[in-house]
Amino acid sequence: MENLFWIFISALLVNNFVLTYFLGLCPFLGVSGSLETSARLGVATTFVMLVTAICAWALNTYVLVHAPYLRLICFIVVIASTVQFIEMLIRKLSPALFRAMGIFLPLITTNCAILGLAIFATNRGYGFWEGIAYALGAGIGFTLAMVLLAGLREESELSDIPRLIKGTAMNLIIAGVLSMAFMGFAGLFSST
Amino acid sequence: MSKGQSYEEFVKGIWRDNPVFVQVLGMCPMLAVTNSAVNAIAMGGATFFVLVGSSALVASFRNWIPKQVRISCFIIIIATFVTVADYSLLALAPAVHKELGAFIPLIVANCMILGRQEAFASRNEPRLAIFDAVGMATGFLLALFSLGAVREILGNGSLFGVSLFGANFEPWVIMILPPGGFLTLGVILLFFNWFKVKKDEFLADVAEAERSGK
Fold first, then answer.
1. pLDDT for the residue B81
2. Count of A–B CB contacts within 8 Å?
3. At what angle do helices B178-213 and B126-156 cross, to 10 degrees?
4. I want to staple A38 with a disulfide (CB 3.0 to 4.6 A). Which of A83, A150, A171, B109 is the partner?
5. Which of A113-122, B16-25, B76-85, B185-194 has the lowest mean pLDDT?
6. pLDDT higher than threshold 60 for residue B1
7. Is B40 within 8 Å of chain A by CB?
8. Is there a contact between B119 and B145 (Cβ–Cβ < 8 Å)?
9. Are B13 and B19 in contact (CB under 8 A)?
10. How confident is the model at residue A192 (pLDDT cuts 50, 70, 90)?
């Protein structure tokens, strides 16, 4: 149980997917314009990550032991089609939920954070529950980074910033400062 | 299909439409592995192979791939080439492969590669597609190398593992850590913005002078 908790905290803060591994940068820089959108994208990503963790565990346990070289192709195809299927299911069962996160689901599937999650979890040999804890930590960590950047960007819209630095250059520098701040969490583990 | 057109497709990827500095695509693998020049070149080489191979294949099969499932077809083709690159690197240079770790498989999710298939290779003949892919991949490689070299020189005081400044140099460690990647790319993009603004001003000045001349 304690182990699961540390996996969660590690993925959430110390090894934050966006700010330490640079995964999922496209939505991080592209969609972080407004606070609400980025929070919703974050929730949808966390959901896809949970599905991914389950798929990756099932594939690793039952299929890929026989053919390890098919790993990459299997991951992509299975994850993409599962997410597509769940999207249809949500649309049928709960239109409100679909409106909240449905439009993001297909976008997220080919995001490198999703594939990265599957590959990292495989490389570290995580079991079922460890995979779930890892996916939750990574997803919430992604949401946290998105929301932080979106808040800072909304704030900076109103301030007087030189024309030259506006846009991606400024977002990257903000992300660099955020990443520096997250390095402070690295000390969490040395004490235990 | 003149010779000029293939040349044009080749050159545009290196400067005018540089995938990293101008289009800001394919950032995930590039920031993660550019903490040294050698890693940057290995990553650039692997991406080069995958992009050129899949562009050639997609362009050759472009009339047989049904429009509705084209994205899935592209991804499967790309994933096949990435698997080949992954296993070749493991066999040829195990040390580099260990260093890059999970980021070689992640080339699949590089939006730059899928973007080239969708925007160019699926609509043009193989020869042009290969020129386009080689240009884009070279631009990507150059971008990776410049970022990796800057970060290694500042963060480690060396280039390709060779020490540059002697023992008295105090390395700027943050540059090889994750924040350094964001900051370096931010500053390089700033430089590109500055260059573009200056160029626009210059062109406006020229137009102004011509109008007043007449």
1. 93
2. 115
3. 120
4. A150
5. B16-25
6. no
7. no
8. no
9. yes
10. very low
